[in-house]
Amino acid sequence: MVTNFPQLIFTAFIVFFSVTISAKNSIQKVYEQVNNGVVELHVKALAQPEPGKVNYRPTTENSLGSGALISDKGRILTAAHVVETATEITVIFNDGSTTSGHVVWVDNLIDLAMIQAYEVPKELQPLRLANSGNYNIGEQVLAIGAPYGVSHSLSVGYLSGVRDREPIPGSNLIPRFLQTDAAINQGNSGGPLFNLQGDIIGIVSHILSSSGGNNGLGFAVSIDTIRHIIDSDPGIFLGVSPHLLTKEQALALNNPFGYGLLIQQVVPNSIADVMGLKGGKFTVTIGRTPVLLGGDILLEVAGRPLTNLEEAIKIRQRLSEYGKGDRVTFKYLRNGKVEQTFWEFD
After folding, report:
1. What amino acid positions are annotated as catalytic residues?
2. Which of 194, 221, 305, 316 is the most core-located residue (most Cβ within 10 A)?
3. In the 8-state DSSP scheme, what is residue 55?
4. Rounded Cα distance, 284 and 227, in Å
5. Structure confidence by residue, pLDDT tens digits, 74-85
6. What pLDDT sits at residue 15?
7. Residues 151, 91 contacting (CB under 8 angstroms)
8. How is domain 128-232 classified at the CATH fold level?
């Protein structure tokens, strides 16, 4: 058999070129389809405690993140660490219009949060959430966000791994994160990770990096975990950054109960702030983590003691069940004295 090598090479080139153009057009099409649903978040938040700085003053600092509009009513998914201590949130849409937003709920254990935008441009289509499990290692994925403030930047890569964490006590949730080699940097946090159908398969959480920049190891909260949290109703946002005490830590703080939730920071005008709860004033380092001391230690909510993580999660679930007119009592320790306050749902 005689083979026409020039013709064979030409045919292979045409096939390769066609596939490349097809893939390129597919990515362009997805980007054009979903880009308007990606938002940029400019956040003023309480400054985090710094190791080596003993006295803490609750000043604010500016930060940047991204989000995914998933409702025409203005609901936006983002990362918890972007907004968990936010005092002011500005939402910037692709057409340049802006609005304010507030935190609806935060899940610190998963690094996921929901915010509410006060206004949404007319005819802006919300993004679609993929079905749970609708992803495969090796498939091409797209991330859109604002790395270093460069708005609506596209990065393309592959889903390079699926990573499950330890089950969360008191729930049937095993947190799952999707690993990608798509370039992810500061400012991408909270932005969506898409498949080639234009569906959200993850919300960008963090990177593993020795330099602080992209090293090919980015992680996003998986759509399975996102749907589980939304369906389970994360409840209300109290407006505190917590540190759950071990028995040893509680006793070291002269807390005779041997348990409790040490309040680190209280967001101004939040539920916790209105109730009069106070955050810490002095920074210590436990392991490598800066912890604020001197704040209130929350002991009980609605009569349930905060003895461990499982109980804390059950309390959060219970808070989601209260409705208008319900009154919940919060018992806390301040300066060695047990006090209490309450919140009435409206």
Report:
1. 81, 111, 189
2. 194
3. B
4. 37
5. 999 999 999 999
6. 47
7. no
8. Thrombin, subunit H (2.40.10)
Q: Which tokens hold the place of 218? A: 């980015």
Closest CA to 191 of 69, 294, 277, 83: 69
- As beta bridge partners, residue 66 has 40
Q: What is the CA radius of gyration of the chain?
A: 23
**Domain parsing of the chain, residue ranges:** 38-117, 128-232, 240-344
pLDDT, tens digit, for every residue of 8-22? 554 544 444 444 455
**Structure-token match 């935008």, residue found:** 117
Q: What gap in Å lies between CA 185 and CA 140, rounded to an integer? A: 19
Give me the residue label for tokens 């392991």: 287
Q: What are the tens digits of pLDDT across the range 197-230?
A: 999 999 999 876 555 555 668 999 999 999 999 9
d(CA 242, CA 261): 6
What is residue 343's DSSP assignment? E
Q: In the structure encoding, which two tokens stand for residue 338, read together?
A: 């047990």
Question: Taking Cα atoms as reference points, which of 210, 213, 135 lies closest to residue 176?
Answer: 135
Distance from C-alpha of 83 to C-alpha of 79, rounded to nearest angstrom: 7
Neighbouring CB atoms inside 10 A of 320's CB total 12
User: Could you give phi then psi for residue 95, rounded to 5 degrees?
Assistant: -80, 5
- Reduced to 3 states (helix: H, G, I; strand: E, B; else coil), residue 256 is coil
Region of poorest pLDDT, from 42-46, 76-80, 117-121, 284-288: 284-288
Residue 187: pLDDT band by 50, 70, 90 thresholds? confident
Measure the N-to-C terminal CA separation of the chain; round to a whole number of Å: 84
C-beta of residue 258 within 8 angstroms of C-beta of residue 311: no
* CATH 2.40.10.10 for the 38-117 domain, yes or no: yes
CATH T-level topology, domain 240-344: Pdz3 Domain (2.30.42)
pTM for the whole structure: 0.86
Q: Given this chain, do its domains 38-117 and 128-232 carry the same CATH topology?
A: yes
